[in-house]
Amino acid sequence: MKNKQSIIPQFLKKNASFTSIFVALILISIVWSVLTPYYLTLSNFKNICVYVSANGIMAAGLTITLVLGGLDLSQISLMALSGMAAAIGYEHGLRGITLLLVAMLVGIVGGMINGCLITYMGINPFIATLATQLAFRGMAFIVTDGRYISINDTMVRFIGFNSIFGLPSMFWIMILVYLIIGFVMKYTQYGRNIYSVGGSRIASRLSGIPVKKVELVSYIISGLTAGIASILYIAQGSVALNNAGTGSEMDIMTAAILGGLSLSGGKGTVLNTFMGVVLLSVIANGMSLLSISSYYQMLIKGIILIVAVFVDHLREEKN
């Protein structure tokens, strides 16, 4: 009995971030269910699954760069550019899986650009990805002359409007991405190298870890997830938008920090990131159901980000 009593506090301490997010999720769900009768419905649950999917995929990629001790502010813009590249491919006769491959390729190239700027040119990750955020967004408009492109493709329609086991297809795509990245981070040498570099670049280099290679691959994966997410964004309305995601550039970062990822690197899991994404999506969903003004929603998201960063600061001081 005594052993069981000691195991529970140890479990809660070890999984403090997950536990706190889970409790917050329950409390917020109770509040929303009291304030609006539409929250606890199957259709709204599916809406949350759709809302969480694209940003969730990018957050999984962002997790790697944050654990590495880096940063990627360009994902949303790269997602828009990848989507427009796939749309141009559609106009030139590409269909089905090739559209996804084009989007993924553009995402990989964008991630490689970020990685080279940061790893080999020595530019600060914040400055580098802020610059590419602007560049990728500008390119998304330039390559299409600022126009939207409708896509009537069977694969895109399946992702956007079909369900598997009662849940939207895009939600299962997100789950698959999390399973792959979670496996890589926990069970591969590359994953262990990420945590090592995030903990100490100098110690990692002295121990023989190819730090620059690890960093470059990490930013490529971050870009790849943006490319995958672009197809999910397109699938929601069967149209590629060059302004996709505008105004939500910090949502992914907020979700990751809510999930307990440290801005100083070396800590965090994709499971906690997933919980952070779900929590932020539930908050946004409830505010939308209550018809809260978008301006107030922006204010609340800003406050949440400040609180999340402050909590991260307290965690670092405690450690």
Give the arrangement of secondary structure elements.
Layout (H helix, E strand, L loop, with lengths): L1 H13 L1 H20 L6 H26 L7 H17 L5 H23 L5 H18 L6 E2 L3 H8 L1 E2 L2 E2 H19 L1 H11 L1 H6 L4 H27 L1 E2 L10 H8 L11 H20 L4 H25 L1
Antiparallel strand pairs: 1-4, 2-3
Helix pairs in contact: 2-13, 3-8, 3-9, 3-11, 3-12, 3-13, 4-5, 4-6, 4-11, 5-6, 5-11, 7-11, 8-9, 9-11, 12-13, 12-14
Structural features, described:
The structure is a single chain. The chain is mostly helical and 319 residues long. It has a domain at 49-245: ABC transporter involved in vitamin B12 uptake, BtuC (Orthogonal Bundle), CATH 1.10.3470. Helices cover 76% and strands 3% of the residues. It is built from 14 helices and four strands. The chain has helices spanning 2-14, 16-35, 42-67, 75-91, 97-119, 125-142, 154-161, 169-187, 189-199, 201-206, 211-237, 251-258, 270-289, 294-318, and strands spanning 149-150, 163-164, 167-168, 239-240. The strands form two sheets. A two-stranded antiparallel sheet has the order 1-4. A hairpin with a 2-residue loop joins β2 and β3 (167-168). α3 packs antiparallel against α11 (211-237), α3 (42-67) packs across α12 and α5 runs antiparallel to α6. It is globular, with a radius of gyration of 20 Å. The mean pLDDT is 86.
